[in-house]
User: Which sequence fits this backbone?
C-alpha cells in the first residue's frame, strides 16, 4: 500500500445537536433526525484508521455526546492506541457521572465551544434557554474529573467586540483558549453573514494576544490564515510561539480528512454535503488499500479537488521573496473575499 502521511482524522458521529445555532455548518442543510453514525461500522472504521496509521481522532458533530455509544467508541479507539479528542458544546457534561465515564473510558482532552461570555447572548445564539449555564456546568465537571480542557471560540461579527470578556470568563479555567476564523459555508450562503474579513480577524487576534499575554493565558489560532494579514511584529511573535498554524490547510491538501456520520469523506466540515468518496461499501468498511489506491490517490474526485485548491490564491503569493509557508490560508476564504485585495505584496 502506498505510504500516506496521515496524522489526525475527524469523525463526525452525528450532525444532530441539542443547540440550534443558525450559522453552524451542521445546521446549514436543514438536517433531519437519524443522522447518526451506524454502530455496526465502528470496528471496521477503527480498523481502517489503524491501518492508515492515524495517530489521533477527534470526535465532532453536530454534538458528538448525543451519539448513543459515545463512551463505548472512545474506549474502542483508545484500545487501538489512537489518541481521542472531543469537540463539544459541553451541555451533556452537566451530568457529573457522564463526564466521569468519558474520562474512565479513555478520553484525556476535550474542547468546549463558547460563542459568548453571557448566558443571555449565548442562549440567543443557541436558541436554547439555559444552554450557557449547562455549558459552564459541563466545563466545571470536565475539569473536576481530570480532563484537559480547552475552549474554542469562532470569531465573527456578532462577538468580535466581546472577545476580552470571553477571556475573562474562561482564561483562568481552561488550559488553552483556541480561536477560529469564522469559515465560509458552502451549503447555505445566509450562514456567511457573520463572517469577518481576514484583515478584521487578524486585528482581533492581535488585540486578543495583547490582552491574554498580560493575563498569562495561552492562545492558539486553529484556522489556517494568510500570514501577511498580520502586522510583521505580531507575525514573528505568533510564529515563534506557535500561536498560528504554520502551513496550509492540511485537509484540503490531502494530509487529513473528515469521516461524516454516513461514511462520506470530506476535506473539512465546511464541505458537508459535498463528499469526495465513501468508506461504506456493501455493508462493510473498505480496506486501507482501497482507501488509498482506489479512491484517495486515484484520478477521481479527491485528487481533482486537491489539485484545484493547491494553487496560490494570488500572484503575490508566488513572489520568490515571500518565504511564508501559509500558501494563502484556508482556500474557502477566497469564496467571499478577493485575494488581490487581501494578500499583501512581500516587502
Assistant:
Amino acid at each position: 500500500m502506498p505510504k500516506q502521511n496521515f496524522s489526525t482524522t475527524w469523525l463526525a458521529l452525528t450532525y444532530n445537536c441539542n443547540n440550534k445555532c443558525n450559522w453552524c455548518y451542521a445546521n446549514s442543510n436543514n438536517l433531519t433526525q437519524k443522522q447518526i453514525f451506524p454502530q455496526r461500522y465502528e470496528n471496521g472504521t477503527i480498523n481502517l484508521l489503524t491501518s492508515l496509521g492515524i495517530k489521533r481522532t477527534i470526535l465532532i458533530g453536530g454534538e458528538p455526546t448525543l451519539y448513543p455509544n459515545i463512551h463505548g467508541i472512545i474506549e474502542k479507539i483508545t484500545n487501538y492506541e489512537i489518541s481521542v479528542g472531543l469537540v463539544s458544546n459541553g451541555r451533556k457534561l452537566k451530568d457529573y457521572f457522564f463526564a466521569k465515564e468519558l474520562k474512565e473510558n479513555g478520553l484525556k482532552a476535550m474542547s468546549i465551544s463558547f460563542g459568548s461570555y453571557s448566558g443571555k447572548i449565548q442562549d440567543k445564539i443557541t436558541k436554547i434557554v439555559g444552554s450557557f449555564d449547562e455549558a459552564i456546568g459541563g466545563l466545571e465537571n470536565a475539569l473536576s474529573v481530570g480532563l484537559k480542557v480547552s475552549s474554542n471560540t469562532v470569531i465573527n461579527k456578532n462577538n468580535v467586540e466581546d472577545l476580552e470578556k470571553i477571556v475573562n470568563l474562561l482564561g483562568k479555567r481552561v488550559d488553552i483558549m483556541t480561536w477560529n476564523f469564522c469559515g465560509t459555508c458552502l451549503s447555505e450562503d445566509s450562514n456567511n453573514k457573520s463572517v469577518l474579513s481576514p484583515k478584521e480577524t487578524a486585528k482581533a487576534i492581535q488585540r486578543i494576544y495583547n490582552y491574554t499575554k498580560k493575563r498569562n493565558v495561552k492562545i492558539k489560532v486553529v484556522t489556517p490564515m494568510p500570514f501577511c494579514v498580520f502586522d510583521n511584529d505580531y507575525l514573528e511573535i505568533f510564529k515563534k510561539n506557535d500561536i498560528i498554524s504554520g502551513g496550509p490547510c492540511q485537509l484540503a491538501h490531502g494530509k487529513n480528512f473528515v469521516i461524516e456520520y454516513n461514511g462520506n469523506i470530506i476535506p473539512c466540515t465546511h464541505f458537508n454535503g459535498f463528499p469526495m468518496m465513501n468508506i461504506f461499501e456493501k455493508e462493510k468498511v473498505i480496506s486501507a488499500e482501497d482507501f488509498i489506491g482506489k479512491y484517495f490517490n486515484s484520478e477521481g474526485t479527491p485528487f481533482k479537488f486537491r489539485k484545484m485548491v493547491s494553487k496560490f490564491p494570488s500572484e503575490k503569493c508566488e513572489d520568490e521573496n515571500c518565504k511564508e509557508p501559509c500558501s494563502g490560508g484556508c482556500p474557502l476564504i477566497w469564496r467571499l473575499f478577493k485575494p488581490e485585495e487581501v494578500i499583501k505584496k512581500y516587502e
Remarks:
- The chain has a mean pLDDT of 90.
- Residues 200 and 247 are 21 Å apart (CA to CA).
- The two ends are 44 Å apart (CA to CA).
